[in-house]
Amino acid sequence: MLTYSTAGESHGKCLITLVEGLPHGLSIDEDLINAELARRQGGYGRGGRMQIEADRVEVLTGIRKGRTIGSPVTLLIANRDSRIDSAPPLTQPRPGHADLAGMHKYGIGDARDVLERASARETAARVAAGALARLLLSEAGIDVVGYVRGIGPVEIASPKMCADELRRARDESETYCPDPDATQRMKKEIDAARDDGDTLGGLIEAIAFGVPAGLGSHVQWRTKLDGRLARAVMSVQAIKSVEIGMGRNVAAARGSQVHDEIVPDESGRPTRPTNRAGGIEGGITNGCPVIVRAAMKPIPTLMRPLRTIDVQTGKPADASTERSDVCAVPAASVVVENVIAFELAAAVVERFGGDSIDEMRRRLNPSA
Questions:
Q1: What is the DSSP letter of 248?
Q2: Fewer CB within 10 Å: C terminus or N terminus of the chain?
Q3: What distance in Å separates the CA atoms of residue 368 and residue 361, rounded to the nearest whole number?
């Protein structure tokens, strides 16, 4: 079983990711992990914290001579801004954050203990885990590409591109959107929101190419791959809805407009001319690309603060302002892409796994 856990606070000493279940002998590419961490810190609309941190991973355990040795892999990302003990208390909870809910949970009058862990800074640790899992996915020929489909009122249709084309177009965009015209319109929306002291959310989509049929299971609710993907994506900070395939559009369509017909290809093997299901039927991959979509709310820390109360005095107040982004949708697309990559890698291990990467390769390519 391939799993991971994260630890660390926004202004603590570091973030830590513990990954368990990687097979022995997998080559580790720290440059790939660092590249994903750098992408997470980029994107138009990011705030001041990204000018302080320069995330790089340090592998602490589970690696010898650049390869996994079968034991847990520990990844560390240091925080330059490690002022958790000197950071001031926060008694004016910010609407849209975990501040007030966490204060109720623990019975405390200072939200600092809550916000330090609830912060989206934690997602750097998840990106590191997903980037590590991508090394395993490449053995199975699976390539996950996440990108921005919309920011504020600007939205594009899902592009019809192969993985390499989509990644190349995305990487040329400051908003991680593969459409150059939409990128410019998104930047204008972000600039307008910044001028107003406001923030913007948007729409993220990720496509997993090369996914074989048979990953996941229909047997138990907890093993259904679509449910696992939805949970992984929904747990990303500020994500408010998750869709697979047609998503909520199935509610307004007839069955003939929703389900993917099965027809024979030139060799008589079953194929589908459409992919409305998003590559998953009954909790199991069907051989089509897996398509996952997520809606991200605007960042709740506004430079024009929303109303709140000071919990110490009970009087009205303006919400506290920490360093924040105007728009973090591009960064969130990197997180979404990588949490999806990890769940797919876990499903690959379940189906084809072995104690070593050589054993897994034999199971992936039995005729080789």
A1: G
A2: C
A3: 9
